[in-house]
Write a structure and sequence with these properties.
Elements: E1 9-13, H1 27-39, E2 54-59, E3 62-68, H2 71-74, H3 76-88, E4 93-95, E5 98-99, E6 117-119
Antiparallel strand pairs: 1-3, 1-4, 2-3, 2-6, 4-5
InterPro entries: DUF3579
Protein name: PhnO
Pfam family, one: DUF3579
Length: about 120
C-alpha cells in the first residue's frame, strides 16, 4: 500500500463484497479494542477501549471502521492486522473513497464523504 501518511483515512465497510452484513454486530468496536491494545493508548475516564487512530462509524446505516493512516507509522503491526482482517473477511477497505484493493469479486465502492459518516453513539448498535 502506498499512501501519504497522516493525510488519508481508511474505511472498512461492514458488508462483505458478496453483500452480506458482517457479523458480529459489534465487530468495529472489537477491532478498535484490539488496535488500542496494539498502540497502548488509553483515555482517562473512559472505560472502553478507544484510540484516536480507529473509530467505529456509521455510513448510510452501515457499520464501518474509520482508521487513520497514522496507524501505519505508530504501529505497523496493528495496521497490518487491520488490513488482513478486512481481506480475510472480504470486507471492502477504501482509502479516502477509493477502493484499496482490486481483483476478482471486488466491487468498486463509492467515495465516502466525511459529512455522511457519524460516530456510533455510546448506546449504539
Amino acid at each position: 500500500m502506498t499512501t501519504h501518511i497522516g493525510t488519508r483515512h481508511f474505511l472498512i465497510k461492514g458488508r462483505t463484497v458478496s453483500g452480506k452484513t458482517f457479523r458480529p454486530g459489534d465487530w468495529a468496536e472489537r477491532l478498535t479494542g484490539v488496535i488500542t491494545l496494539f498502540v497502548g493508548e488509553r483515555r482517562p475516564g473512559i472505560h472502553i477501549a478507544c484510540t484516536r487512530l480507529a473509530m467505529p462509524v456509521v455510513q448510510a446505516e452501515l457499520k464501518c471502521l474509520l482508521v487513520a493512516s497514522e496507524l501505519q507509522l505508530v504501529c505497523p503491526a496493528a495496521f497490518e492486522f487491520v488490513a488482513r482482517f478486512a481481506q480475510d473477511n472480504d470486507l471492502p477497505m477504501e482509502v479516502d473513497g477509493m477502493p484499496e484493493r482490486d481483483g476478482p469479486g471486488t466491487a468498486v465502492q463509492s467515495a465516502f464523504p466525511l459529512a455522511e459518516i457519524s460516530a456510533i453513539p455510546a448506546a449504539g448498535f
